[in-house]
Structure prediction request, 706 residues.
Amino acid sequence: MDESSYYADNPPTAVALAIKPHFGALSEKEKRYAHHLSRASFIGTRIVARQTSPESEDIYQLIIALYRACKGDWKKLQKEASISDQSLQAFLEYAAQFLANGGNYKGFGDSKFIPRVSADVIEVLASLSPNTKQLFGKIKAGKAGGMYATTQNPGLMHLGYPDRGHISSYYPDSGSVTEPEIGAVDDFLAAKGLLPENTRLRKLQNGDFELLIASAIKNPPLEDRDAGETTQWTLDGKLEGKKLKLVYGDHMEEMARIAVEIKKAGLAAANDTQKHMMDAYAKSFGTGSLKAFKESQKYWVQDKSPMVESNIGFIESYRDPAGVRAEWEGLVAMVNKDRTRVFGRLVEGAPAMIPKLPWSKDFERDTFIAPDFTSLEVLSFAGSGIPAGINIPNYEDIRRDHGFKNVSLGNVLSAKVSNERIPFIRPEDLQLYQDNRDEAFEVQVGIHELLGHGTGKLLQETSPGKYNFDVRNPPISPITNQPIENWYKPGQTWSSVFGTLSSSYEECRAEAVAMALSCEFSILEMFGFGNGEENMDGKAGDVLYASYLSMARAGIVALEFWDPKSRKWGQAHMQARYSILRTFLNAGDDFTTLEYTQKDLSDLHIRLDRSKIISHGRPAVEQYLQKLHVYKCTADLEAGRTLYEEMTHVDDWWGKDVRAEVLRRKTPRKVFVQANTFLDDGGKVQLKEYEPTLEGMIQSFAERDI
Prediction:
């Protein structure tokens, strides 16, 4: 195993997530609401670490303890430890990247990263106080390699199913648990109508199982338990005779503190909808009830255009290898009214755009419920990384009956890095790409969230004998031109049927929608580019060209997140983008080609024919998109898996030659330095921003860890 490929970025790129003007425009009541929600979000930092790896929480505590031991004076600590400038810098780089990812596995990629400095150096740093010495000893003694590489078991360098040689803290102390066992338990829970997002699963030595439920109390009132009086079942089927016990109180200390902050936020709510939302959050986090959490999401959808937008809880399931258990996440942000107006135009135009997608109304929702779509400036985002946009809730019944929200995170999109290298773009395209990529990405994110994740109908038997389509005259598949033969059965959901495939597959579908509809010049006009007429030579054409170039480039750099040993993709979005690049390359007539003259691919770049985006690029994407969509709508896992595995297959040329050049030219991901809020002696909320440096990143976490 080449340990150097797992080194922490050198250096990670620290960028300030600027928020001061937007926060300053809030009223005192709104600031207090934002403050308590921000506190609730970041209290979950230890939960994220605990969900990442066995050692992550201890590493987090070590970093914070070292900061406090030297009061942020790292040079003083360096002098006391007698280590070099290079060694100190390597530790700070690791610490900042760790904090940005919520643990020692990449939030975007799921592979472990390790310090560029020896364990001996960090041990010397940690020896300067009894607390840090104890923490480092605990990390060093860990079973999964602690902070460093597991050279004897390289599979542990990647998150995944334990029985495939990987590691997942969604299954703590359960090294013998298997993928089929996890699937059987999840199927059993689904049949009981119990949701898994806020759970972890532990397999005991006798073969029985414990379902750990995140809650502030260990014995919730019976009326607040989703499972009612039942606390244990005897399983059947593949696990016949084994027991499954419900254990409340996972992350208990954090959940209790979160619930307190949520209740305080409720006292500063702007309206009854926000109050009800906070009450439902507090009940869910206190008792572990996901029924209560779903109620919070209904209120959240109803809370239209608030000055302070937020969502908090166990939201996304990307990092669970089974694709059902979710990571703690908290968002608090302010609305950017000017940019929100742009997205409002996109929402207004959505009903006219949906019919342009390559499927009939049989595969689309009966009614498009216009969502709230806002451009936000992020105050706080707790989790393993910050996305550019969000489309939630993820619960299909809420989306169908109540709608959903889209948000674009403006200060994430606009965060700039000076002198950033941009590999794989031709020199003659570079200036146009730099001038238009931010605008192209905003268009892409807008379409991806609203018309990508926001479209489609799951054809299902909603309850025994009842269907949301005419089962006697089923829809005709545009792929086979025959009546559909598959649909979702009672109790089945998208993620329960497609399992580990679901996250990346859905991201691919949404990205393909964005690539198809970004060719609509009327949409580009909504964002202020062109006059709605097709014109590849004007500003709208520049933005469209930059969008396709950006997707093609993303498809190449995606190979960083494919592991050649496990032959496993580690990041849902990047797997999707690779498949779309493959779609571009398969479009024919040299629409997209990869050009190089050097055997080692050191001059590899993308040539994409701007004049063929409409004639070749869009049709190729739509053909792929149609299959992705119909297979999803009809619960056709077999066809969907065959298609997606074919399109994301990495052969030797891609996996060895191209990937080697991707790694050689890779650029560090951004590390976002976020502000904190505090209550002063007079009870007023104060904002504190930090320098966009490694030291500023660590300080910001240490000062919010109270």
Notes: The two ends are 40 Å apart (CA to CA). Residues 350-365+421-665 form one domain. The mean pLDDT is 95. The longest helix spans residues 427-452.
